[in-house]
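Hi support team,

I submitted a single chain yesterday and got back a structure, but I'm not sure I'm reading the token output correctly. Could someone confirm the output below corresponds to the sequence I sent? I've pasted both exactly as they appear in my results page.

Thanks,
R.
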Amino acid sequence: MTRTVLKSRLPNVDVPLQDLPTYFFSRMRQRTALATLDDSSPRPLFVDSDTPSLALALDELETLATQLASGLYHAVGVRQGDMVAIVLPNTIYYLAVTMAVLMLGASCTLANPAYTAGELAHQLSDSNARFVITARANIPAIADAIEKLAQSSPHGLDQTLRNILCIDRAADSPMIGDSDKHLVRSIFDVLSQQQFPRALLTDINRLRTTPAFICYSSGTTGLPKGVVLSHYNIVANIEQIGYAIRTMTPPKQYERTTLAVLPIFHCFGLILAHSLPIQGSRLVIMRTFDLARFFELVEAHRVTDTMLVPPILNAMVKLSDTAAMHDLSSLRWIISGAAPLGPDTARSLEQTYNGVRVMQGYGLTESSPGLSLNMPKASRVGSSGQLLPNIQVKVIDDSGRALGEGKVGELCFRGPNIMLEYLNNKEATRHAIDVDGFLHTGDVGFVDSRRFVFVTDRKKELIKFNGFQVAPAELEGILLQHPQVRDCAVTGVFDPLRQTEVPRAYLVLSDVASTAVHADEAAKTIVMWMNRQVAYYKQLRGGYVIVSAIPKSASGKILRRALNSAPTAYDEAGMAPVHVALVADPQIVDHYSYDQTGALLRITEFYTDIYLRKSYNVLQTIRHPETIIFLGDLFDGGREWEDEQWLEEHARYKSIFRNRSPDTVPVYDMAGNHDIGIGNTVVGHALDRYHKYIGPTNRVLHTGGHQIILLDSLTLESDTPAVSAASRQLVERLANETADKPRLLFSHVPLWRPDGTDCGPLRQSPGGSLLNRRGYQFRDQLFQNTTSYLLDSIKPTAIFSGDDHDTCTITHTVPAAGGIVKKAIEYTIGAFGWASGVPIASYGLLTLYPGQKLPAAHIVQNCFLPYQLGIYKVYGASFILSLIIVIAYCYRGSRSWHPVCKPSEDDLASEIGYARLQLSPSMSPSPTPGAAIEELPMPASMPGRWRISQTRVIVRVLLAMKSIVVVALPTYGACLLYFYII
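Hi R., thanks for writing in. Yes, this is the structure output for that exact sequence:
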């Protein structure tokens, strides 16, 4: 007789009858006692990856959680049964916050800090949250979400929701304090040692029915649903996963170091943040993921294991050259989850990273989440692992009939870790959990005789983007709110560059927008609008397809598998594009971070996409992930490419360069493999990694908060009206915000002659120039319009312009800047030997250490240049940025630069792999202090393949700026660059 319910072959584990805080701290004390017996000195549990001195040991964690619980009770008013929203990025304080809430008998709803105000408003409302605990960077979005709720609620807003708690210390946060509508306090200001009613749960029924966490999971219908996980669910899954993790322990059990990469608000990250410390791991908490930084941290902390998602593992295989620069020999285990991992990828990774074992697992938020995991002595290629202890599974066909082992059908699981319910949604709960207690996953697969789980297909319609679930129905509901969308459907398509699924929209346009002339523009506008409504991982990265009808069944259900063959709106003779892989998206997005001094950092990003027209009715584009990093990604124009080879080459360069150290990342310019403006490159790279290089770090200390706005100057005169309008909006915003500050405009295009007269229309790129090689001609009128608009809008205090092709001409006007600018230019010529050429001014600044003003001879003899980037040439952009630094340095006078560390030359060379270059003395004629500004030809013998340290230049600019706005307009109008102290 065929067995229809299959049980795990692993021995059952006992589930302690304790609430989560009691269980966690009691198990941790046992672990600490065992570690002491093992002659291992106690180590911190949680360590901040950017600031290793910021760490929490067990006693510190428990004390902080207890005092915070007391403060929440006495000072804030949290009571048993309340819901507290936790909107936090990865932080060493995450578990202290959640434990404090649970100690009071309250529950936590965990929200993605990347959510928009609208998405946060839904979760706050649906979970009935009464309090919010967050980080300073998320306060603006939360405040907006609360205001949305206040406006939409017919019964008014629960005013306790306006009491926002922040994990940042009050002294470090200018945003913390009373305001007109919200009271924001630091958790460290409410800590208390008073007694409070500790909620202790020991009864099995209360443990099973008392919610600990409400994690939101995207469903196939409607908005994300709250998954209610009880104390019993979480404790059970910690024990189940713990059984598997113990099989991966190193020779000394308590010498594990885990690099915590996954977001803790995600159920996978949450359970591991509890389970791994109990199994003896020290967790190094990575705030935001960056692969180059990942390699650095594995080496620095001697990481033994980590948990990743398949797109990261794919990137690790492709970037093995970068990994080879680091000692990763300590890394032994990688657990992969959240999405399927191909066996070829796992095999390649194990071969590339000798000694590393990749363990694929499977689970869902609804199962807390772990269900199966491959283990060192029990693994099968292609499987998602063996059933964890206490887990039962049945495989059913479409009629609900159980099939038994080896048969393919829908996977359904039962165990102590299966969720309690979907919050406020009995109908969805009834569909998900049957009368026998089995969770219907919507995944199709089979289970073999040894109870290994194989997932072969997905019955659910969810899209998995980098491990995040995206519900098509949610996106469709938003799209249908747009007046120009008559009908729509969203499905996932695989993106080979990102190695993950991305959402694509199929649009049936309204009568007004459906003519061939207007359809393309209407669809672009719709997608731009759409992407502003949702978190970054829900955006329509797969672009759109304009169709005449959405294929549906007789009952009206969308037939998603038939979407690719849906009838298109226009035939081959039509005017409008039928398919666009991605569209221009003139988004203005504010991110908030903070520097190591505690000053608020606002980063404003403006970005669009490139159009590569392959034929008159098909547009394709290449787009990097979330932010701008490659110079070519800034252009909004039309280019024609002859074949696919260049696209593949660009993708390869992008994959390689994007994850290298910022000091060695070249810009791969889409126009011809050259860097034609270092300013935009540096800022794009900094934006892409701002948490590391502009946010808190143990390597760079920033003084004051900074606002960075990155803007493509071509978009000021874009063919797409929405792009031009958004560009000008950003310029006007900057002008208003900096009305009382000096503004310096730098341009590599000659705007004025040395005698002060206007150069007139700006020239096109000369024949044979970098951009002209691809057949793209810049328009004189466009630059003239752009320049005129900038001069009228920015009204710069001083203007510098120069031609970086033939001469180093610098012309200037100083109508209101006093002697600062003139003094800076004289200082540049006199101290740095400008006559010796651009490289001296540029590279010499790399040797400016605190308190030093170095003579030209020292600079000439001690320049450090990267040796491995031989295909790049430095032009005048480097000089302009150097001049910015010098101006700022003079402006600040004798004040210290205050970097965290003062690197020696040897440290600098070893840290970033620079090679010493001895310049010829003939390149450095004796400068004349205070020499008049005149045209000086660049040295004929100047080496043509140099590159400066991008990050160190940008850091010095940011360190130096003090109430100065800088606007840099590179030669070809690639972007505008603002630095502004707020």
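A quick pointer for reading it: The first helix runs from residue 20 to 37. Let us know if anything else looks off.

Best,
Support desk
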